[in-house]
Amino acid sequence: MKTVVLGVGNVLLRDEGVGVHAVKMLATCELPKDVEVIDGGTSGFDLIDVICEAERLMVIDAVRAGGEPGTIYHFELQDLEGSLSSFKASFHEIGIIDVIRAAELLGKKPRVEIFGVEPKSVEVGMELSEEIANKIPHLVNKVVSRIMECN
Q1: Contact 6, 59 (CB under 8 A)
Q2: What's the whole-model pTM score?
Q3: What percent of the chain is modeled with pLDDT above 90?
Q4: Of residues 146, 30, 15, the one with CA closest to residue 91
Q5: Strands 3-8 and 56-62
Q6: Contact indicator for 23, 6 with CB cutoff of 8 Å
Q7: In what order do the strands lie in the sheet containing 111-117?
Q8: For residue range 122-143, what is the model confidence (pLDDT) as tens digits?
Q9: CB 2 within 8 A of CB 116
Q10: Candidates 3.40.50.880, 3.40.50.150, 3.40.50.1970, 3.40.50.1450; correct CATH number of 9-150?
Q11: Sequence-distant (≥ 6) Cβ neighbours of residue 105 within 8 angstroms
């Protein structure tokens, strides 16, 4: 089963770039050969081919869900079904959920898991806040553990 781990976010908006920072660390880990790690940045609909080719998609992104900064969330896309209209999984103009939904319209429906981190600051700046930077190793460990569970 092809698994894609996709880190998304804008590294110019501090903690909004958490997904990109996480996949950079994840890329240094030893992973099964059927796992592809991709820095999706703020690509939006440019990621449609990546999503369509995945059987399992693990997205890492900043998620504003009301928790304390640094809170790590893990859920499957179907867990959001009733609340998608009020849930903002991304700060991007075109959210990753929108791109996943577009892939579904094309007949491609990977199993989707989202790993999110509650941001502290989305102000202009390239460094993660200390609280979020300290969570990256823990987040990467959670993603690796989940990959290994499913393989």
Answers
A1: yes
A2: 0.88
A3: 67
A4: 15
A5: parallel
A6: yes
A7: 35-41, 3-8, 56-62, 111-117, 72-76
A8: 999 999 999 999 999 999 999 9
A9: no
A10: 3.40.50.1450
A11: none
